[in-house]
Amino acid sequence: MKVMITQQEAMQRKIWDKIIDMFGLDKDQDYWEKEQFILTEEQAREVGLIR
Prior knowledge:
By secondary structure, this protein is α+β, with helices and mostly antiparallel strands. The protein is built from 3 helices and 2 strands. The protein has a two-stranded antiparallel ribbon with strand order 1-2.
C-alpha cells in the first residue's frame, strides 16, 4: 500500500520535519502546499499516519 500526503497536510499533522528527513529534503527550501509525497506503508506507520 502507498500513502500520499501533501506538504500542507504534513504541516497540519506536525510531521513535516519527519517527512523532510525521510525524503532527504532541504529544510531551507520552499515547497508547494499541494506538493505530494508518496510513502510506503512502513513509512506511513513510522510517522503515525496509519496503525
